[in-house]
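Record 1 of the preview.
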Amino acid sequence: MLRLGLSFFLVCSLIQAKGKPSFRAEPATENGVPVSPKVFYEKNPSALTAEIGVVILVGSSDDPVDKVGLSNIVGEMVLRGTKKKSRQKFQSELERMGGSLSAVVSHDMIQFSGGVIKENYKKFLVLLEETLLHPAFSEKDFQELKREILNDIAHVKNSNNRLGGLAARREIFKGTSLERPVIGSKSTVEKITLADVQRRYNNIFDRPKIVFAAAAPFPESEMNMEFSRIWRQFPDGNKPLKRQINLQIPDKPTLIVIDKPKTSTGSLFFAQAGISIQDPDRYTLSTGNFSFGGEPLVSRLFRIIRGELGWTYAIGSSYSSLGGLSNQKGIFSISSTPSVEFTSKTIFKTLEMWKSYQEDGLSGDELDLAKDSLINSYPFEFETAEKRVAKKLSSFIYDVPILSSEEFSQKIGDISNKKLKAALREKQKSDSWLIALVADKEVVVKDLEEFQKDIPKEQRLTVSKVYTPEELIN
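->
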Protein backbone atom coordinates (compact mmCIF):
# COMPACT_ATOMS: atom_id res chain seq x y z
CA MET A 1 0.00 0.00 0.00
CA LEU A 2 1.19 3.51 -0.81
CA ARG A 3 0.35 4.65 2.71
CA LEU A 4 2.81 2.18 4.17
CA GLY A 5 5.49 3.39 1.80
CA LEU A 6 4.94 6.99 2.82
CA SER A 7 4.92 6.12 6.51
CA PHE A 8 8.19 4.25 6.06
CA PHE A 9 9.69 7.20 4.24
CA LEU A 10 8.70 9.67 6.92
CA VAL A 11 10.39 7.52 9.55
CA CYS A 12 13.58 7.48 7.48
CA SER A 13 13.37 11.06 6.31
CA LEU A 14 15.89 12.42 8.80
CA ILE A 15 18.65 11.04 6.61
CA GLN A 16 17.87 13.26 3.65
CA ALA A 17 19.78 16.34 2.63
CA LYS A 18 18.88 20.01 2.61
CA GLY A 19 18.86 21.60 -0.78
CA LYS A 20 17.07 21.85 -4.08
CA PRO A 21 15.30 18.63 -5.07
CA SER A 22 16.53 17.03 -8.27
CA PHE A 23 13.06 17.56 -9.74
CA ARG A 24 10.24 20.01 -9.25
CA ALA A 25 6.78 18.77 -10.11
CA GLU A 26 5.21 22.21 -10.09
CA PRO A 27 1.86 22.35 -11.89
CA ALA A 28 1.21 24.61 -14.87
CA THR A 29 -0.13 28.01 -13.85
CA GLU A 30 -1.99 30.94 -15.31
CA ASN A 31 -1.31 34.25 -13.55
CA GLY A 32 0.11 32.26 -10.64
CA VAL A 33 -3.01 30.08 -10.28
CA PRO A 34 -2.48 26.29 -10.77
CA VAL A 35 -4.34 24.83 -13.74
CA SER A 36 -3.28 21.24 -13.13
CA PRO A 37 -2.68 19.16 -10.01
CA LYS A 38 0.58 18.02 -8.45
CA VAL A 39 0.93 14.33 -9.30
CA PHE A 40 3.73 11.96 -8.28
CA TYR A 41 3.78 8.70 -10.15
CA GLU A 42 5.77 5.50 -10.56
CA LYS A 43 4.82 3.10 -13.31
CA ASN A 44 5.12 -0.57 -12.35
CA PRO A 45 4.26 -2.65 -15.46
CA SER A 46 4.26 -5.97 -13.58
CA ALA A 47 1.99 -4.81 -10.74
CA LEU A 48 -1.34 -6.56 -10.26
CA THR A 49 -2.75 -3.64 -8.29
CA ALA A 50 -2.90 0.13 -8.44
CA GLU A 51 -1.88 1.95 -5.26
CA ILE A 52 -3.29 5.46 -4.97
CA GLY A 53 -2.86 8.28 -2.48
CA VAL A 54 -4.44 11.70 -2.04
CA VAL A 55 -2.87 14.13 0.42
CA ILE A 56 -4.50 17.21 1.93
CA LEU A 57 -1.69 19.52 3.06
CA VAL A 58 -3.33 20.51 6.35
CA GLY A 59 -3.33 18.57 9.62
CA SER A 60 -4.02 18.74 13.32
CA SER A 61 -1.52 21.54 14.02
CA ASP A 62 -4.09 23.84 12.40
CA ASP A 63 -6.94 22.59 14.61
CA PRO A 64 -8.39 25.10 17.09
CA VAL A 65 -6.65 24.59 20.45
CA ASP A 66 -9.95 23.73 22.14
CA LYS A 67 -11.00 21.34 19.33
CA VAL A 68 -7.87 19.31 18.61
CA GLY A 69 -8.96 16.14 16.85
CA LEU A 70 -11.08 18.01 14.31
CA SER A 71 -8.82 17.16 11.35
CA ASN A 72 -8.76 13.53 12.42
CA ILE A 73 -12.56 13.42 12.47
CA VAL A 74 -12.75 15.11 9.06
CA GLY A 75 -10.45 12.45 7.59
CA GLU A 76 -12.52 9.63 9.07
CA MET A 77 -15.89 11.14 8.16
CA VAL A 78 -14.93 11.60 4.50
CA LEU A 79 -14.79 7.79 4.22
CA ARG A 80 -18.09 7.13 6.03
CA GLY A 81 -20.47 7.18 3.11
CA THR A 82 -21.40 9.68 0.40
CA LYS A 83 -24.43 11.73 -0.55
CA LYS A 84 -25.60 8.77 -2.68
CA LYS A 85 -24.27 5.81 -0.72
CA SER A 86 -24.62 4.86 2.91
CA ARG A 87 -21.50 3.87 4.79
CA GLN A 88 -22.41 0.19 4.47
CA LYS A 89 -23.12 0.43 0.75
CA PHE A 90 -19.91 2.39 0.18
CA GLN A 91 -17.81 -0.26 1.97
CA SER A 92 -19.59 -3.12 0.23
CA GLU A 93 -18.92 -1.62 -3.18
CA LEU A 94 -15.28 -1.02 -2.28
CA GLU A 95 -14.80 -4.60 -1.11
CA ARG A 96 -16.64 -6.06 -4.10
CA MET A 97 -14.14 -4.47 -6.50
CA GLY A 98 -11.20 -5.79 -4.48
CA GLY A 99 -10.21 -2.43 -3.06
CA SER A 100 -9.35 -0.78 0.23
CA LEU A 101 -9.29 2.84 1.36
CA SER A 102 -8.21 4.44 4.62
CA ALA A 103 -7.33 7.81 6.12
CA VAL A 104 -4.32 8.68 8.26
CA VAL A 105 -4.00 12.11 9.85
CA SER A 106 -0.80 13.70 11.17
CA HIS A 107 -0.02 17.15 12.49
CA ASP A 108 0.57 18.49 8.96
CA MET A 109 -1.53 16.40 6.54
CA ILE A 110 -4.53 14.18 5.94
CA GLN A 111 -3.60 11.22 3.75
CA PHE A 112 -6.12 9.00 1.98
CA SER A 113 -4.53 5.78 0.75
CA GLY A 114 -5.96 2.85 -1.10
CA GLY A 115 -5.38 0.07 -3.53
CA VAL A 116 -7.38 -2.03 -5.94
CA ILE A 117 -6.80 -4.81 -8.45
CA LYS A 118 -5.70 -3.22 -11.70
CA GLU A 119 -8.80 -4.34 -13.63
CA ASN A 120 -11.00 -2.20 -11.41
CA TYR A 121 -8.89 0.91 -10.96
CA LYS A 122 -11.27 3.20 -12.90
CA LYS A 123 -14.21 2.06 -10.80
CA PHE A 124 -12.08 2.69 -7.74
CA LEU A 125 -11.25 6.22 -8.89
CA VAL A 126 -14.94 6.96 -9.47
CA LEU A 127 -15.69 5.85 -5.91
CA LEU A 128 -12.72 7.84 -4.57
CA GLU A 129 -13.95 10.90 -6.45
CA GLU A 130 -17.41 10.51 -4.96
CA THR A 131 -16.21 10.19 -1.38
CA LEU A 132 -13.72 13.06 -1.60
CA LEU A 133 -16.13 15.46 -3.29
CA HIS A 134 -19.49 14.41 -1.84
CA PRO A 135 -19.07 12.95 1.66
CA ALA A 136 -22.35 12.30 3.45
CA PHE A 137 -21.41 13.80 6.82
CA SER A 138 -24.30 11.95 8.41
CA GLU A 139 -25.21 12.99 11.97
CA LYS A 140 -25.61 9.32 12.91
CA ASP A 141 -22.18 8.36 11.58
CA PHE A 142 -20.65 11.42 13.22
CA GLN A 143 -22.00 10.52 16.66
CA GLU A 144 -20.87 6.91 16.25
CA LEU A 145 -17.37 8.06 15.28
CA LYS A 146 -17.15 10.39 18.27
CA ARG A 147 -18.06 7.54 20.59
CA GLU A 148 -15.40 5.33 19.00
CA ILE A 149 -12.75 8.02 19.36
CA LEU A 150 -13.69 8.84 22.95
CA ASN A 151 -13.47 5.13 23.83
CA ASP A 152 -10.03 4.95 22.23
CA ILE A 153 -8.92 8.00 24.21
CA ALA A 154 -10.24 6.50 27.45
CA HIS A 155 -8.12 3.37 26.90
CA VAL A 156 -4.92 5.46 26.67
CA LYS A 157 -4.86 5.91 30.44
CA ASN A 158 -4.08 2.18 30.71
CA SER A 159 -0.98 2.51 28.51
CA ASN A 160 2.03 3.61 30.57
CA ASN A 161 4.17 3.98 27.46
CA ARG A 162 1.80 6.55 25.97
CA LEU A 163 1.08 8.55 29.12
CA GLY A 164 4.66 9.78 29.44
CA GLY A 165 4.60 11.18 25.93
CA LEU A 166 1.24 12.87 26.55
CA ALA A 167 2.58 14.56 29.67
CA ALA A 168 5.67 15.78 27.80
CA ARG A 169 3.50 17.25 25.03
CA ARG A 170 1.38 19.10 27.60
CA GLU A 171 4.47 20.83 28.93
CA ILE A 172 6.51 21.35 25.76
CA PHE A 173 3.65 22.59 23.53
CA LYS A 174 1.52 24.19 26.21
CA GLY A 175 -1.23 26.43 24.86
CA THR A 176 -0.93 25.20 21.25
CA SER A 177 -2.66 22.56 19.13
CA LEU A 178 0.37 20.26 19.48
CA GLU A 179 -0.29 20.09 23.21
CA ARG A 180 -2.54 17.14 22.44
CA PRO A 181 -2.12 14.20 20.03
CA VAL A 182 -3.73 14.13 16.58
CA ILE A 183 -6.72 12.21 17.90
CA GLY A 184 -7.41 14.94 20.47
CA SER A 185 -8.53 14.52 24.08
CA LYS A 186 -11.87 13.91 25.77
CA SER A 187 -12.58 17.60 26.32
CA THR A 188 -11.57 18.71 22.81
CA VAL A 189 -13.37 15.92 20.95
CA GLU A 190 -16.55 16.42 22.95
CA LYS A 191 -16.68 20.05 21.79
CA ILE A 192 -16.51 19.19 18.08
CA THR A 193 -19.82 19.42 16.23
CA LEU A 194 -20.88 18.18 12.82
CA ALA A 195 -21.04 21.83 11.72
CA ASP A 196 -17.35 22.14 12.69
CA VAL A 197 -16.54 19.11 10.53
CA GLN A 198 -18.44 20.46 7.51
CA ARG A 199 -16.83 23.89 7.88
CA ARG A 200 -13.35 22.41 8.22
CA TYR A 201 -13.89 20.25 5.14
CA ASN A 202 -15.04 23.27 3.11
CA ASN A 203 -11.97 25.27 4.21
CA ILE A 204 -9.26 22.72 3.40
CA PHE A 205 -10.48 20.54 0.54
CA ASP A 206 -9.48 22.83 -2.30
CA ARG A 207 -7.05 22.68 -5.22
CA PRO A 208 -3.89 24.28 -3.76
CA LYS A 209 -3.93 21.88 -0.80
CA ILE A 210 -4.39 18.62 -2.73
CA VAL A 211 -1.59 16.38 -4.00
CA PHE A 212 -1.95 13.03 -5.79
CA ALA A 213 0.37 10.04 -5.85
CA ALA A 214 0.17 6.59 -7.40
CA ALA A 215 2.11 3.45 -8.26
CA ALA A 216 0.35 1.46 -10.99
CA PRO A 217 0.88 -0.47 -14.25
CA PHE A 218 -0.71 2.21 -16.45
CA PRO A 219 0.79 5.04 -18.55
CA GLU A 220 1.51 8.16 -16.54
CA SER A 221 -0.53 10.31 -18.93
CA GLU A 222 -3.58 8.16 -18.23
CA MET A 223 -3.25 8.56 -14.47
CA ASN A 224 -2.62 12.30 -14.79
CA MET A 225 -5.81 12.66 -16.81
CA GLU A 226 -7.85 10.83 -14.16
CA PHE A 227 -6.40 12.87 -11.30
CA SER A 228 -6.89 16.13 -13.20
CA ARG A 229 -10.55 15.30 -13.74
CA ILE A 230 -11.04 14.85 -10.00
CA TRP A 231 -8.92 17.87 -9.05
CA ARG A 232 -10.77 20.30 -11.30
CA GLN A 233 -14.00 19.65 -9.42
CA PHE A 234 -12.59 21.06 -6.17
CA PRO A 235 -12.97 24.78 -5.48
CA ASP A 236 -10.22 27.36 -5.68
CA GLY A 237 -8.49 28.16 -2.42
CA ASN A 238 -5.32 29.39 -0.77
CA LYS A 239 -1.98 27.67 -0.41
CA PRO A 240 -1.51 25.96 2.97
CA LEU A 241 0.31 28.04 5.55
CA LYS A 242 3.55 26.74 7.02
CA ARG A 243 3.54 27.36 10.73
CA GLN A 244 6.17 26.79 13.38
CA ILE A 245 5.17 26.13 16.98
CA ASN A 246 7.86 26.98 19.52
CA LEU A 247 8.93 24.40 22.07
CA GLN A 248 8.98 25.23 25.79
CA ILE A 249 11.95 23.32 27.21
CA PRO A 250 13.27 23.63 30.79
CA ASP A 251 16.86 24.75 31.40
CA LYS A 252 17.62 21.88 33.79
CA PRO A 253 16.34 18.34 34.33
CA THR A 254 12.69 18.69 35.37
CA LEU A 255 10.71 15.70 36.59
CA ILE A 256 6.95 15.34 36.27
CA VAL A 257 5.14 12.26 37.51
CA ILE A 258 2.02 10.61 36.17
CA ASP A 259 0.72 9.04 39.34
CA LYS A 260 -0.35 5.41 38.98
CA PRO A 261 -0.46 3.77 42.43
CA LYS A 262 0.87 0.23 42.75
CA THR A 263 2.60 0.33 39.36
CA SER A 264 5.36 -2.31 39.30
CA THR A 265 6.94 -1.29 36.00
CA GLY A 266 7.11 2.40 35.22
CA SER A 267 7.67 4.29 31.99
CA LEU A 268 10.28 7.01 31.51
CA PHE A 269 10.14 9.60 28.74
CA PHE A 270 13.02 12.08 28.47
CA ALA A 271 12.33 14.95 26.07
CA GLN A 272 14.23 17.96 24.75
CA ALA A 273 14.16 20.00 21.55
CA GLY A 274 14.88 18.01 18.41
CA ILE A 275 15.27 19.03 14.77
CA SER A 276 13.22 19.70 11.65
CA ILE A 277 13.53 17.79 8.39
CA GLN A 278 15.52 20.65 6.82
CA ASP A 279 18.15 20.77 9.56
CA PRO A 280 21.60 20.59 7.92
CA ASP A 281 22.89 18.45 10.82
CA ARG A 282 20.24 15.76 10.56
CA TYR A 283 22.56 13.31 8.76
CA THR A 284 25.17 13.64 11.46
CA LEU A 285 22.75 13.53 14.37
CA SER A 286 20.80 10.55 13.03
CA THR A 287 24.00 8.63 12.41
CA GLY A 288 25.16 9.31 15.96
CA ASN A 289 21.80 8.39 17.42
CA PHE A 290 21.83 5.05 15.59
CA SER A 291 24.61 3.85 17.89
CA PHE A 292 23.67 5.88 20.96
CA GLY A 293 20.07 4.73 21.33
CA GLY A 294 18.30 4.45 18.01
CA GLU A 295 18.99 0.87 17.01
CA PRO A 296 17.73 -1.91 19.33
CA LEU A 297 20.19 -4.53 20.56
CA VAL A 298 23.35 -2.77 19.33
CA SER A 299 22.92 0.78 20.66
CA ARG A 300 24.86 2.02 23.69
CA LEU A 301 21.78 2.66 25.83
CA PHE A 302 20.43 -0.83 25.16
CA ARG A 303 23.75 -2.60 25.66
CA ILE A 304 24.46 -0.97 29.01
CA ILE A 305 21.16 -0.14 30.76
CA ARG A 306 19.23 -3.10 29.37
CA GLY A 307 21.94 -5.68 28.69
CA GLU A 308 24.66 -5.18 31.31
CA LEU A 309 22.63 -3.65 34.16
CA GLY A 310 19.24 -5.24 33.48
CA TRP A 311 17.31 -2.28 34.86
CA THR A 312 14.77 -1.92 32.07
CA TYR A 313 12.95 -4.14 29.61
CA ALA A 314 13.30 -1.69 26.72
CA ILE A 315 15.19 1.53 26.05
CA GLY A 316 15.84 3.67 22.99
CA SER A 317 16.13 7.21 21.65
CA SER A 318 14.56 8.94 18.66
CA TYR A 319 14.25 12.20 16.75
CA SER A 320 10.79 11.16 15.52
CA SER A 321 8.67 11.33 18.66
CA LEU A 322 6.02 13.36 16.81
CA GLY A 323 6.09 10.97 13.86
CA GLY A 324 8.38 11.42 10.88
CA LEU A 325 10.50 14.55 10.71
CA SER A 326 8.70 17.50 9.14
CA ASN A 327 8.82 21.27 8.85
CA GLN A 328 7.87 21.47 12.52
CA LYS A 329 10.79 21.26 14.92
CA GLY A 330 10.28 18.03 16.81
CA ILE A 331 11.31 16.35 20.04
CA PHE A 332 14.38 14.26 20.75
CA SER A 333 13.39 11.58 23.24
CA ILE A 334 14.82 8.75 25.29
CA SER A 335 12.26 6.26 26.53
CA SER A 336 12.58 3.24 28.82
CA THR A 337 10.50 0.93 31.02
CA PRO A 338 12.39 0.32 34.28
CA SER A 339 11.16 -1.76 37.18
CA VAL A 340 10.17 0.31 40.21
CA GLU A 341 13.32 -0.52 42.19
CA PHE A 342 15.52 0.67 39.32
CA THR A 343 13.70 3.87 38.42
CA SER A 344 16.07 6.38 40.06
CA LYS A 345 19.10 4.42 38.90
CA THR A 346 17.79 4.48 35.32
CA ILE A 347 17.10 8.22 35.42
CA PHE A 348 20.55 9.19 36.59
CA LYS A 349 22.39 6.62 34.48
CA THR A 350 20.56 7.91 31.40
CA LEU A 351 21.56 11.50 32.22
CA GLU A 352 25.15 10.40 32.81
CA MET A 353 25.31 8.50 29.51
CA TRP A 354 23.79 11.43 27.63
CA LYS A 355 26.43 13.83 28.96
CA SER A 356 29.17 11.39 28.02
CA TYR A 357 27.74 11.03 24.52
CA GLN A 358 27.41 14.77 24.06
CA GLU A 359 30.96 15.45 25.25
CA ASP A 360 32.78 12.50 23.68
CA GLY A 361 30.55 11.34 20.83
CA LEU A 362 30.97 7.74 19.67
CA SER A 363 33.85 5.32 19.64
CA GLY A 364 35.39 4.42 16.30
CA ASP A 365 33.61 1.05 16.25
CA GLU A 366 30.23 2.61 17.12
CA LEU A 367 30.53 5.23 14.40
CA ASP A 368 31.64 2.67 11.80
CA LEU A 369 28.71 0.42 12.68
CA ALA A 370 26.22 3.26 12.29
CA LYS A 371 27.66 4.44 8.98
CA ASP A 372 27.88 0.97 7.46
CA SER A 373 24.37 0.05 8.57
CA LEU A 374 22.77 3.21 7.20
CA ILE A 375 24.65 3.08 3.89
CA ASN A 376 23.90 -0.60 3.29
CA SER A 377 20.21 -0.30 4.16
CA TYR A 378 19.57 2.83 2.07
CA PRO A 379 18.97 1.03 -1.28
CA PHE A 380 16.07 -0.88 0.30
CA GLU A 381 14.19 2.42 0.55
CA PHE A 382 13.80 2.32 -3.25
CA GLU A 383 13.06 -1.36 -3.79
CA THR A 384 9.37 -0.95 -4.72
CA ALA A 385 7.41 1.49 -6.84
CA GLU A 386 5.36 2.41 -3.77
CA LYS A 387 8.47 3.41 -1.83
CA ARG A 388 9.86 5.40 -4.75
CA VAL A 389 6.70 7.41 -5.28
CA ALA A 390 6.41 7.96 -1.52
CA LYS A 391 9.88 9.48 -1.57
CA LYS A 392 8.91 11.79 -4.43
CA LEU A 393 5.81 12.87 -2.55
CA SER A 394 7.58 13.59 0.71
CA SER A 395 10.46 15.28 -1.10
CA PHE A 396 7.96 17.72 -2.57
CA ILE A 397 6.00 18.29 0.65
CA TYR A 398 9.10 19.04 2.72
CA ASP A 399 11.36 20.47 -0.01
CA VAL A 400 14.20 18.02 0.56
CA PRO A 401 16.13 16.17 -2.15
CA ILE A 402 16.22 12.49 -2.95
CA LEU A 403 19.81 11.31 -2.90
CA SER A 404 21.21 8.56 -5.05
CA SER A 405 22.94 5.69 -3.24
CA GLU A 406 26.30 7.17 -4.23
CA GLU A 407 25.38 10.62 -2.90
CA PHE A 408 24.05 9.13 0.30
CA SER A 409 27.15 7.01 0.82
CA GLN A 410 29.33 10.08 0.36
CA LYS A 411 27.24 12.13 2.79
CA ILE A 412 27.28 9.50 5.52
CA GLY A 413 30.89 8.53 4.84
CA ASP A 414 32.04 12.10 5.49
CA ILE A 415 30.69 12.09 9.05
CA SER A 416 33.42 12.10 11.68
CA ASN A 417 33.25 12.05 15.45
CA LYS A 418 34.44 15.66 15.41
CA LYS A 419 31.43 16.63 13.26
CA LEU A 420 29.12 14.67 15.53
CA LYS A 421 30.33 16.40 18.69
CA ALA A 422 30.02 19.81 17.01
CA ALA A 423 26.43 19.05 15.94
CA LEU A 424 25.52 17.81 19.41
CA ARG A 425 26.93 20.96 21.01
CA GLU A 426 24.96 23.20 18.64
CA LYS A 427 21.62 21.39 18.45
CA GLN A 428 21.29 19.50 21.75
CA LYS A 429 21.53 20.50 25.40
CA SER A 430 23.27 18.79 28.26
CA ASP A 431 20.69 19.46 30.98
CA SER A 432 17.53 20.69 29.21
CA TRP A 433 15.48 17.60 29.87
CA LEU A 434 11.81 17.27 30.65
CA ILE A 435 11.46 13.85 32.29
CA ALA A 436 7.98 12.31 32.43
CA LEU A 437 7.69 9.29 34.71
CA VAL A 438 4.66 7.02 34.96
CA ALA A 439 4.82 5.45 38.41
CA ASP A 440 3.49 5.49 41.96
CA LYS A 441 4.22 9.02 43.18
CA GLU A 442 4.83 8.00 46.80
CA VAL A 443 7.29 5.31 45.78
CA VAL A 444 9.07 7.72 43.43
CA VAL A 445 9.53 10.38 46.12
CA LYS A 446 10.97 7.87 48.62
CA ASP A 447 13.23 6.28 46.01
CA LEU A 448 14.60 9.65 44.90
CA GLU A 449 15.26 10.73 48.47
CA GLU A 450 17.12 7.54 49.24
CA PHE A 451 19.14 7.62 46.02
CA GLN A 452 20.14 11.29 46.50
CA LYS A 453 20.70 11.28 50.27
CA ASP A 454 24.37 12.22 49.84
CA ILE A 455 23.57 15.08 47.45
CA PRO A 456 22.86 18.61 48.78
CA LYS A 457 19.12 19.26 48.81
CA GLU A 458 19.34 22.23 46.47
CA GLN A 459 20.99 20.00 43.84
CA ARG A 460 18.52 17.11 44.01
CA LEU A 461 16.08 16.13 41.32
CA THR A 462 12.59 16.43 42.77
CA VAL A 463 9.06 16.06 41.46
CA SER A 464 7.99 19.42 40.00
CA LYS A 465 4.47 18.47 38.91
CA VAL A 466 2.05 15.58 39.22
CA TYR A 467 -0.56 14.51 36.67
CA THR A 468 -3.18 11.83 36.91
CA PRO A 469 -3.88 9.64 33.85
CA GLU A 470 -7.38 11.09 33.72
CA GLU A 471 -6.00 14.62 33.45
CA LEU A 472 -3.84 13.67 30.48
CA ILE A 473 -6.67 12.21 28.43
CA ASN A 474 -9.10 15.03 29.25
